[in-house]
Amino acid sequence: MSRVLITGANGFVGQALCRALVRQGHAVTGLARHAGGCIEGVSEWVQQSQDFIGLDAAWRSGLTVDSVVHLAARVHVMDDRAADPLAAFRATNVDGALRVAQAAQRNGAARFVFVSSIKAVAEADSGRALREDDPPQPQDPYGHSKLEAEQALIRFGEASGLDVVIVRPPLVYGPGVRANFLRLMEAIAKGRPLPLGSISARRSLVYVDNLADALLRCAIDPRAAHGRFHVADGDDPTVTELARALGEHLQRPARLVPLSAGLLRMAGRLTGRSAQVERLVGDLRVDISRIRAVLGWQPPYSVDEGLAATARWYRSTH
């Protein structure tokens, strides 16, 4: 049995990871800013300070953990209202992550699993799936902050002896998903026409329970030491295939208009939404061969199983 502390334990991915750990008999402490939301079997620790300021001094008496999985973050949003988005992302995603790592190391944790993002590497692939050793080229403040956090944590690990493990997922989906994936399901469920009928771009995704399984392995498996891993479902659907599959599972066939990628890019330029359009028409594939080779990891669920579970949740709540 391992003792694991999870930041953001009451969030979308955090709850899935807690379920996986509790199910296997591990002792789980959930660190959250607000009470409630942690699943049964998790010891909840509420720490309301902004960006984990003062966490070391506030460390719960008697709390000993073997590893920490750091999920809490300022997440990517399409219309960021912050006056200085990069500074806001850095405050939480870089400085906050480093404070958690420092407090964990000073209180006896041996491993720190940092949940980064594929956006720390790139927004699109260049003809092949992105690998862990590809030169990073983040394109937005969120991606830059995640890369900077990786670099700061690795430096701290080298200086302090803390075993830092980096995990980079692409878009995460599953029951409880929000943002663009939820909006796509809503549009399909309501029968809205979508200009996605001819999009051949392939996009890696990761089902939340697949990500939770990989994070569990990274937290407790000795072979993960000092590793950097890309995690995905292992099957990259085209945007058109994804929309059609969601329609089937939502029991509302997707109404897809066959517009070319070129026309969509033109529309994006005219409307000032080129970045959003590029996320639809550009390939973003993630190579997961390293985590398979090092940890012997295989995604427990297929893309179709993940989409089916997500659609069942949507139908039950809407």
Automatic annotation (TrEMBL):
Organismal lineage: Bacteria, Pseudomonadati, Pseudomonadota, Betaproteobacteria, Burkholderiales
Pfam families tied to this protein: Epimerase
Residue span, NAD-dependent epimerase/dehydratase domain: 4-224
Protein name: SDR family oxidoreductase
InterPro entries per the UniProt record, alphabetical: Epimerase_deHydtase (IPR001509), Lipid_A_modif_metabolic_enz (IPR050177), NAD(P)-bd_dom_sf (IPR036291)
Highest taxon of the lineage: Bacteria
Membrane-spanning parts: none
Organism: Trinickia terrae
